[in-house]
Amino acid sequence: QLLHAAINEPGRNFIGIEVHRPGVGRLMNGLAEAAIDNVRVARHDAVEVLQRMIGKDALDEVRIYFPDPWPKKRHHKRRLIQPDFIDSLAARVRPGGLLHLATDWADYAAHMLAVVDASDAWRNRAGLGAYSAAPPWRINTHFEKRGLRLGHGVWDLVHERT
Q1: Are residues 85 and 140 in the same domain?
Q2: Do 81 and 128 fall within a single domain?
Q3: Annotated catalytic sites, by residue?
Q4: Cα angle vertex 114, ends 104, 112, to 5°?
Q5: Are residues 95 and 123 in the same domain?
Q6: What is the Cα gyration radius of the chain?
Q7: Same-domain check for residues 50 and 34
């Protein structure tokens, strides 16, 4: 997904944040093969990178695709999309910037929608309580294809920073 974006949006700079070493390695290999130079990659926790390395209003857009759904109820507190994280993103995305989320887990989609819609810092482009159609810039990811094979739906959320 990030490689696709970097190739198809050469005038933009991207920061990829991922903790999974093999995923980072595949991305780095793909960037090298395509001679892409508009991507920087951090193999680290996204919350920490956001809090320690990204300044106020520094980002035009944040794309979070198929984050770990932590499907067991006792693990829901580990989900990336939480009110504090959404507030932290809002401080780092410029007004008018975008937040695009996608998941293939129905209950996580509902959770994400409730969390982001509850924030005064974001406006749901599809309308309060509504999901967006997949924007043209998001291609099908490996996780999305797996989810569809398993009979999951896919939900996109696109919010604008107020």
Answers
A1: yes
A2: yes
A3: 68
A4: 30
A5: yes
A6: 15
A7: no
- Measure the CA–CA gap between 26 and 30, rounded to whole angstroms: 6
> What average pLDDT does the chain have?
94
Helix ranges (DSSP H) in the chain: 2-8, 21-33, 46-53, 83-92, 106-117, 142-149
Based on the domain organization, do 94 and 27 belong to the same domain?
A: no
Residue ranges in the chain modelled with pLDDT below 70? none
pLDDT digits (tens, 9 = 90+) for 29-56: 999 999 999 999 999 999 999 999 999 9
64 sits in which H/E element = strand 59-65
Q: How many domains does the chain have?
A: 2
Q: What angle do CA 137, 142, 147 make, to 5 degrees?
A: 105
Q: Which domain holds residue 21?
A: 1-44
Q: What is the DSSP letter of 44?
A: S
